[in-house]
Amino acid sequence: MTIASCRWISKIALASMIAAAASASASPVVYTLRTVADGKLGSYVFAEALVTIRMKADTGTVQKQPSSNAGGYLYTNSVGTVTVSVTDASGTTKVATFAPGEVYVRYDSGLGIAGFGSALSPSYPVALDCDDVAYPSNATYVQDCLQSDWAGNFNEYNGTLSALTDPGLAAFREVLSPELASLPQNLSQSTLLTGQAHSCATTYTVGPTLGFFIIGDLSVCAGPASRGLRTDHGGFFLQDQVGGSITPFNPIGWGGWGASNTGSLQIEVMTAD
Amino acid sequence: MKTRASTGKTRASTGILGGLLLAALGVAFAVPALASPMKYSATLVTDIKVGERRYHNAAVTITFVGDTNDIAAVVDKQGNQITSTFCTPGTGWFFWLTKGSASFSVQSQGRILQGHFESGQLFVALDACNGGIGFGSYTGPTGMEVAYPVAYALGTAMTVAVTSGLWSPAHMSGNAWSCIGFPPQGAGNLPSNNGFCIDPSSYPLHSDVGDVFVYQPYNLDNSDGSIIGNHVGALNRGTFSITPASGEE
User: Fold this and answer.
1) Cβ <8 Å between B249 and A266
2) What is the ipTM of this complex?
3) Does the distance separating the beta carbons of A249 and B10 come in below 8 Å?
4) Residue A142 in domain
5) Residue A15 lies in a domain
6) Full-model pTM
């Protein structure tokens, strides 16, 4: 046997070992995003309905690459079955299954944004903790969710996503509760990621900042997606009609993005017991 | 400079969302003559203990089925409606629904645990002045808690709280509080709890599957461990739903 062939066999063996190790450590995982949103499923139009997107996958197919924000990673998982459940105010529930590969789960631990993305946009159908301010500027805002809210709104943390990511926390003499500080920041361990919800395939309209404290000049989603996300019940659309549009009300003027919809992404790795 | 605020809200007309819903269904009622059975549900992911088992990051849903005709203004010992110092005098009432049945489910690791709370412990709570909505209970050191086992502030929950309130179907989301001692920072004439929520471990809610304790693990704190604010200190998020009980599947 030649040295070259030995090296080739060694590479095969090493690859097999790595694959075996990956297989051994891989576990079933369920990603569940819960929010309230506006949109359409087939011909069924809904407003402010409970929307739950759930993906059953495996941690072995989580992909990892450096985040655009140094120090973090962009995690994605696109292999699995994804369903969407919509419950309207009457209590009626519709459930649909996305076509394979139509949507994927995504968590950018560098930016502090998580949700479900698609070929239409990495932040659509739902992204949590996007910037509520037009970015880079009102004039150049052409794509939603290019940065997270903690970067554009230093005034407040809108969920665990911002709090886990913002390096400036200590400057305000604030700390995370121990349980919050210990939350894993990837798609392969059980964790809970929360924030304000953006559900818009295009861009939000830009208007005055409403409310106070939780700021943002984005208002409502300006238009529908160019096409529906393919499901077994027809095209699925989300188009946020609340966003930061709520006029502040008395007595202290909460409104705007302080009155937006919020969401949570639960990552539950299934253990053997 | 970063600052923190505490609380606020106003009362508004009821029935806006309900009107839209009824119009959509093509149904008209002579309000408020008929009973309106309603289901109130809160869903969040949190830590909860049931009996001897503690669940971490479980999907918890608490449900209360009652009737909108039983929603009442909260009154003091003299029978006067309670106002909020943050709202215009005479308009900022607190409401609750105490008659009904309460249950819960815990989903974790693909399994579902369901239980029923013993009667007379939970109530549906509405702060139509400051924008709070959720479930309170007769527990804690004072015997009444407005944000335990779970209630919501900010988000669309705040808007619903100050508009259609508990009377009409709606889904909403917001900051989820499971706090004995709310508001931790005090607000108006409500006393402060030095910025802390009280550990629920000494205050069980009794159910047919064991005592229930709901925790609030994810907070933004001051350096002394106190929660930074009555609205924004809780970093968990959840949903609250009001749907016709007859619409249950």
Assistant:
1) no
2) 0.90
3) yes
4) yes
5) no
6) 0.89
